[in-house]
Structure formats: structure tokens, C-alpha cells
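Researcher: For the record, we're logging two predictions in this thread. I'll number them. Prediction 1 follows.
Model: Prediction 1, sequence and structure:
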Amino acid sequence: MRNYWIRPNVTYEVVYKLKTEEGKLTMSLDNQLFEETTTSVEGSVLMTFDKVKPVVKLVGENAKNGHAEVKLIKHQ
């Protein structure tokens, strides 16, 4: 689990990449964005948070060589 410090009610671009050789990786961001893969997935989405510390949750189920990246970029 990872916490980010952000400004509430400001729009952020969320850029994510998930990858695993085996098993499954699941990601959730502040109970708003959900993504899972058994191989790889990446994307970006604009999001606004109503609290200062949104939580990223990453779960690997029988994952082998799993990798996850999540970036929050303030949207201009």
C-alpha cells in the first residue's frame, strides 16, 4: 500500500503500468480506479480526489516477476 500527498479537488493525471509473467496483479486507487492483469496493462486517466491522502493498493496473486508503477501528475 502506498499513500500520496495531494491537493484535494485538484485534477491529476494517473499514469499506471502493471506487468507480471505469471499469476495476477490487481491495483486499486482510492476505491475509484480498478485495474487487473495476468500479463500487462498500462494506461492513464484524469482523476480528482476529495482527500489529501489517496491510497494505492497493489495485490499479487501467484505473481512471478510482478512490476507496478503508479504516477500522479498534476493536470494543467
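Researcher: Logged. Prediction 2.
Model: Prediction 2, sequence and structure:
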Amino acid sequence: MNDFAPIEQLCRDLLLRTAAPERARLLRSIGREIRKSQSDRIAAQRAPEGVAFAPRRPKPDRGGKKGRLRQQKMFRKLRMAKSLKAGANADEAWVGFGGRASRIASIQ
């Protein structure tokens, strides 16, 4: 049994009663909040399930040199607004990766 069914029905009824421009504005703000929460999750190095990302694989010794990239967090550029896009219209809100970032995110 879905405990959220009454709440979902109430929200659906409220959304259907609002005008299309107001619905689009509301869905756009919801999309922005979801994008921000996903960006924060990526910055915290957490998977959607809440577990930590797997650590980077160790690389062979390069004579005592440490790579700068290896010391930084993974996916730091994927979480930027230019890669993690959010949008909405009167019927739906969406959050996703665009362009080359979508290909990188789908592989990972």
C-alpha cells in the first residue's frame, strides 16, 4: 500500500487547478531544487543510494610524483550548472546531463 497516495492526489489536484504559466514556474523551481540537491550529492561523493563512491584505483608508482588530478574529487565538473541541466514546462520538470557530460555520466 502506498502511504503517499492521498498526498500525491492532493498535489495533482492542486497542480491541475493552477494556470499553465504558474505551473511552469513552480515546476522550474522544483527542477532547480532537485538539480541543487543532486549537485550537492555529487560534491559529497555519494551515490543516489547514499553509499560513498568507490575510491579511485591506485596507479603504479611514478617515482614519487603525485598527480594533482588524482588528489581532487571525482566528477567535480559534472556537477556544475553548465553540465547538470534543469528545465520545465507546464507539464513536466526535468534534470539531466547535456552534451558530452551526458556521455561521461552514462558510462560512470
